[in-house]
Amino acid sequence: MRTIFVDKHLPKMLAVKLLSPAWPGVCWSPISAARVADLPESALPGPRWLRVRNLQCGVCATDLALLFVNVDPSIAPAALPGNQRLYLGHEVVSVVEAVGPGVTRFKVGDRVVMDTRFNGQHCLMQEIEPPCRYCALGEYGLCENASAGRGGHGQGGGWGDGYTAHETEVFPVPADLSLDQATLIEPMSVGVHAVLRRPPQADDRVLVLGCGVIGLLTLQAVRAVAPDCAVTAVARYPHQAEAARRLGATEVVSRADYAGLARLSGAKFYPAPMNKGMVLGGYDVVYDCVGHANTLEDSLRWTRAGGTVVIVGIDFAPMKLDLSPVWYQEVNLIGALAHGMDTWQGRTQSTYAWVVEWLRSGQLTAAGLITHRFRFEQYRAAVETATAKGSQRPIKVIFDYT
User: What is the DSSP code string of 283-344?
Assistant: First the structure.
């Protein structure tokens, strides 16, 4: 089994974190905790486990953060034991090759996408009864037993030939979806889940901050939920701005300045000599798809009193920011972790099910989003392209194993 993984080896991870700004290739060196390996096929860990062969897999910013160690060991999740080995690649569509005798949800030949496996263990895959309060609701990413360490561990990931998983860690792909649509189910679910955490209304003024692939997919989800609302998108690069316009942004700006965004949202901007100033009457909801300290601080100031900022992207580092708008303007600040169970128009189902439904109805589209394709052997070129930002105009880079 060919695969790429990162071991939790703190000295090596700190060395890569220190050296990577000057030596980008350090992640592939012996200094790194990352490895490109050929592992022997292991037996299925239990009767409800299965093995899949990968067809396509996206290169995600989370994978790159692990590879280049853009992660601070002092952030809250780092305190949890979790997995000691992190296999890269979770935006992956695969075909089932082998099933254990206890598997009831899938058979050999079925297409699946990775669901909860990348987020860590949960009650169902550990076969814990009764499940915790969150797993009982289908919110497996919030599992209270995620670090219990019971049951087996899967081998392999999306960056490679295939992987093993408990049958509750993968999701069935309908036969009528294309391979590209299936590959984008996971990243699309991030945008859909974020939007359904605070659905915009028809007369809302919405800001999508950041137009990488997650920002563009969040923009699509906004349009699916509230097709008539006014959406401003902040896109750093021209190819991102072009995609944002195509996907329905009302306004696209390349620079998020206070005066300009106040004008677009119909707000009043009050400059101040010793700080960034204040916007009164700004956006009803801001989806921050970057999640750095400066973007979150700005988002809170650009939101109207009583409005909402949704954290979609995240910088895996401690943050210092001005939270006073949460108090002074009663701005709501909420998080959106990957995907789970979402309610819309009186119906509750998994985020993946919403994505499949909206792909079928045309409310979401995969067209034009996959810009670069690589074989597994070209993994260095794939990573270089995904991190090239504006120069190679990447939106979604994938590995193609077909």
Answer: EEEEEESS--HHHHHHHHHHEEEEEEEEE-S--BS------HHHHHS--EEEE--S--EEEE
Do residue 303 and residue 207 come from a single domain? yes
Q: Please indicate, yes or no, if residue 363 is contained in any of the structural domains.
A: no
User: What CATH number corresponds to the domain at position 378?
Assistant: 3.90.180.10
Q: Is the Cβ–Cβ distance between 170 and 92 less than 8 Å?
A: no
Helix (H) or strand (E) segment spanning residue 222? helix 213-225
Return the half-sphere exposure (C-beta side, CA atoms, 13 A cut-off) of residue 23: 11
* Residue 392 Rama label (left phi>0; alpha psi -120 to 50; beta): alpha
Question: Tell me, what CATH number does 252's domain have?
Answer: 3.40.50.720
Q: Which helix (H) or strand (E) holds 218?
A: helix 213-225
CB 104 within 8 A of CB 118: no
Same domain flag for 131 and 204? no
Residue 358 resides in a domain: no
255, 365, 181, 168 alpha-carbon torsion, rounded to 10°: 80
With 0-12 / 13-18 / 19 or more C-beta atoms within 10 angstroms meaning exposed / middle / buried, residue 136 is exposed
What global pTM score does this model have? 0.95
Q: In this predicted model, what pLDDT tens digit does every residue of 323-358 receive, in sequence order?
A: 999 999 999 999 999 999 999 999 999 999 999 999
Domains identified in the chain, total number: 2
C-alpha 338/C-alpha 193 separation (Å) is: 7
Amino acid letter, residue 137: L
Full domain range(s) for residue 159: 2-184+371-400
